[in-house]
Amino acid sequence: MKLTILGCFSATPRKDTNPTAQVLEINNHLFLIDCGEGTQVELRRNKIKFARIKHIFISHLHGDHFFGLVGLISTFRLLTRETELHIHCPKGLKEVIIMQMKLADSWTNYPLIFHELTSDDSELIFEDEKVEVWTIPLDHRVYTNGFLFKEKEGERHLNMPAVIEANIDIAYYNKLKQGHDVLNNDGVLIDHKKVTSAPNPTKSYAFCSDTAYKESIVPIIKDVDVLYHESTFLDKHAHLAPKTKHSTAKEAAQIAKMANVKMLILGHYSTRYDDLNQFKLEAQTIFKAVKLAKDGKQFNFD
Ligand SMILES: [Zn+2]
What we know:
The chain is an alpha/beta fold. The protein has helices at about 40-45, 65, 70-80, 95-105, 160-165, 175, 190-195, 220, 240-245, 250-260, 275-285; strands at about 1-5, 20-25, 30-35, 55, 85-90, 110-115, 125, 130-135, 145-150, 155-160, 180-185, 190, 195, 205-210, 225-230, 265, 290, 300. Strands 6-5-4-3-2-1-18 form a seven-stranded mixed sheet. A hairpin with a 5-residue loop joins strand 11 (about 180-185) and strand 12. It is globular and about 70 Å long. About 35% of the residues are buried. Pfam families: Anti-Pycsar_Apyc1 (PF23023).
């Protein structure tokens, strides 16, 4: 699992900072999460192949999280993309994008499929044999979801010498890998745990931006490997957080602690701050394993 931060600041794009966008590589998928202005430039800068992006997840319809989308969709068209593009987003975004394409009379030549979200409960929105994606309902000024990306548990590994020793027919190997006990050639029931080892450990990533402090997300993100939680404000501006429905670094840390995550990444910093290290210091008064997002930074979690 690998995370590339394309942009991690709130509000406006600036000379050296970008609004929210990131790419999560998990089990051969490249998922684009949010698409602030300038995302396609940052994708190129970070040498991410456009064609590999098949799913885009948009948290909410504030401009700093989706103003790059219509440009990216248009560039895909100019690059003569043919593969499907799926957009998972709040209801309303389809109307915005269709209106822009209609006025420009520039329709995509590839299938553009919108999956519009309206539920206030966490729901499964993508699934294949290896990965699941769930929404994380957040508390912001407009309808907003975070996203939980989870690898599914794989098959158990056969311990071949033990399997042969136990005299098990090859026809039962798949059952063993799936965790079933099986009968051997002598009619004896063999405990699968004695002849297999545990599957590879799975990874999980939760993206939570934008949101006010919201404890009810804790059960959804419990024990994830990595939590990206917005921290728009430092403590000295904590009074602005409830009003704007954002969080402070300490509040992000409190959520990370309660959810028992392995690592917290902070981001969505207000552009009023010059010294980002202060976010880390404040968060670490509550939760130790904190990293700072930075535009262009890659996190490897293997
Ligand atoms: Zn917002």
